[in-house]
Amino acid sequence: MGFLSGKRALIVGVASDRSIAWGIAEAMHREGAELAFTYANEKLKERVDTLATSIDSKIILPLDVTVDTQIDAVFETLQRDWGRLDIVIHAVAFAPREALAGGFTQSTSREAFAVAHDVSSYSLTALARGAAPLMQGRQGAILTLSYLGAVRAIPSYNVMGLAKASLEANVRFLAADLGPQGIRVNGISAGPIKTLAAAGIGGFRKMLARVAEVAPLRRNVTQEDVGNAAAFLCSDLAAGITGEILYVDGGFSTVGMSFPSDE
Ligand code: 0WE
């Protein structure tokens, strides 16, 4: 029996089989959870449908996280079909492409700032508000995905770093507010992983190589690494953990200067 058996989870953020959200879904399915998925637009519908069906998920819903009526509709459907909810995975981020290149000062428009914060941080608050009524009387768990750019200046990450800083503060405020209802809220700060979202980013391959040279584990992390940590954090094994950002980055963030390797 898996450590998530009997749990029902909503997974927001699957775009392909390389998505971190899909790595989390696979780990949670393996541990016995029942899953519902959302897709961000019609282009992604069929791909998410195929993935969800492959692990026997029957609830697959449209969700653009910037549209309140769509958020309401998702939780109305879950209320009707499940009547309760244990877990929400928020694995959504977006900044306009022009904002993720060049220098921070010049590349950060008011519009890019607003979009990045709306999609990447506010959406967590909105999903938590929708989910909370369905989590009453249970040990609910909400998990989001962050990145080191929230706490360190990283070339080209630019306004996404500000949005992730806001997201991490969001985790702490939600944890404080929802804790009395038994709902835990945490984040995973993952090392860089090649996903659809990362594919178009200039110099991403070099970044992966650099991290693998410097990180204590001397490798990049995988969707499976993040999936397993996520499954743990959303399970009752983590009943005492809330408001936390857990680094799943091979230790990269814990070293200052890189130590030379003998191998
Ligand atoms: O959070 C992210 C990336 C999220 C992301 C990706 C895109 C690409 C397509 C947000 N918005 C967009 N907008 C698009 O138009 N990561 C942690 C991955 C990432 O992105 C970077 C990184 C890393 C790491 C961008 C620059 C530098 C490093």
Provide a descriptive summary of the structure in words.
Helices cover 42% and strands 14% of the residues. It contains nine helices and seven strands. It has helices spanning 20-30, 42-54, 68-81, 104-107, 110-131, 158-178, 196-199, 204-214, 223-233; strands spanning 8-12, 34-39, 59-62, 87-90, 141-146, 184-190, 245-248. A seven-stranded parallel beta sheet has the order 3-2-1-4-5-6-7, sandwiched between helices. Helix 2 (42-54) links the parallel strand 2 (34-39) and strand 3 (59-62). Helix 1 (20-30) crosses helix 9 (223-233) and helix 5 runs parallel beside helix 6 (158-178). The mean pLDDT is 97. Ligand 0WE binds next to helix 7.
A few lines on this structure:
By secondary structure, this protein is an alpha/beta fold. It is built from nine helices and seven strands, in the order E-H-E-H-E-H-E-H-H-E-H-E-H-H-H-E.
Task: Fill in the keyword field for this structure.
263 residues; alpha/beta; 9 helices; single chain
Radius of gyration from the alpha-carbon trace, in angstroms: 18 Å
Distance between the termini: 40 Å
Strand content: 5-15%
Would you identify the regions where 5 or more consecutive residues have pLDDT less than 50? none
Q: Note the overall shape.
A: globular
Give the helices and strands, then pairings.
Elements: E1 8-12, H1 20-30, E2 34-39, H2 42-54, E3 59-62, H3 68-81, E4 87-90, H4 104-107, H5 110-131, E5 141-146, H6 158-178, E6 184-190, H7 196-199, H8 204-214, H9 223-233, E7 245-248
The structure holds ligand 0WE.
